[in-house]
Amino acid sequence: MTQFSVIDTWTPMTAAEREQFEQDGYLVIPGALSSEEVDHYQGAIQRAYANSPEGAAGVALHQLSAATHCSELTGLLDHPAVFPYVWSLLGWNVHVYHSHFDVHPMLRKPRPFRWEWHQDGGRQNREIEVSPRPRLSVKLAFWLSDVSRPGRGNLTVLPGSHKTDWLPGPPRRDLPHPRPEGAVEVTVNPGDVLLFDRRLWHARSDNYSDFTRMVAFFGYTYRWITIRDEVAGLSRQHWFDALNPVQRQLLGHAGDGSGDHSWGHFPETTPLYGALAEQGLLDPNYPPLIP
Questions:
Q1: 34-53 pLDDT tens trace
Q2: Spelled out in words, what is the top-level CATH class assigned to the domain 15-243?
Q3: Name one GO molecular function term (predicted).
Q4: Whole-model pTM?
Q5: What is the pLDDT of residue 6?
Q6: Are 226 and 97 in contact (CB under 8 A)?
Q7: Which of the four pLDDT bands, split at 50, 70 and 90, describes residue 5?
Q8: 3-state secondary structure the chain
Q9: Where in the chain are the domains?
Q10: What is the band of 2 on the pLDDT scale with cuts at 50, 70, 90?
Q11: Once rounded to an integer, what is the mean pLDDT over residues 154-167?
């Protein structure tokens, strides 16, 4: 597994970054990946795409369970440039519950209209009683293609909408309807990372450019929320043993006999708690970081 030189310590998100994130529901982290890392992860996804039925047909691929289907992406799970934003917001008792990597070649002709605006979380948005809905999870989008201009399959977001439970739309998803007022296409460069609140209303735009849209998404939530990804049997994969303890935690590993389990009753046995404690990063003023 390719190793890149990384910093030895993590740095929490700043007060200004937290304020902007709480206001807009998302935050762009420019240049999080080096050019070498972009090339490496691009190549990994290109190989996975080439070996897929979609790649053989030259059509779009939306591959769920990113690490399961492309183990080289595990280096992104706790990438030091962006993972601190996750535990700064959610704390140490977390795992990746949903991930995917996407490859979208240029569309040769417009596809039929479909209203794709949504909040992440699925049934959470119907079954939780409070309003506004709780955050519960955040997502990191690692951009590996150039979407510095609109029209390249950019993620489209409605800034500040993460405190809004419902978005006006058509009576059926296949009925044409204008884009929500105030929506913007997020423009970023290869190596930039987008952090966003799961409640942020968002949709993928179509790619009519000469660029192939390529991006990997990792969604983080509390370990007492079930994992959507296919992770059964990962611990028997040859590459799993090469992961560090935090990465194994993020892929759902728990219950190893040390006392660690998904409810986090024994913090000292939870790998991420130990890593943060060792670096003096457990903020006693923020409940998710308190033992």
A1: 999 999 999 999 999 999 99
A2: mainly beta
A3: 2-oxoglutarate-dependent dioxygenase activity
A4: 0.94
A5: 47
A6: yes
A7: very low
A8: CCCCCCCCCCCCCCHHHHHHHHHHCEEEECCCCCHHHHHHHHHHHHHHHHCCHHHHHCCCEEEECHHHHCHHHHHHCCCCCCHHHHHHHHCCCEEEEEEEEEEECCCCCCCCCCCCCECCCCCHHHHCCCCCCCCCEEEEEEECCCECCCCECCEEECCCHHHCCCCCCCCCCCCCCCCCCCCEECCECCCCEEEEECCCCEEECCECCCCCEEEEEEEEEECCCCCCCCCCCHHHCCCHHHCCHHHHHHCCCCCCCCCCCCCCCCHHHCHHHHHHHHCCCCCCCCHHHCC
A9: 15-243
A10: low
A11: 97
Tokens of 19: 């304020």
Residues 6+ apart with CB under 8 A from 144: 38, 41, 42, 45, 190, 191, 214, 215, 216
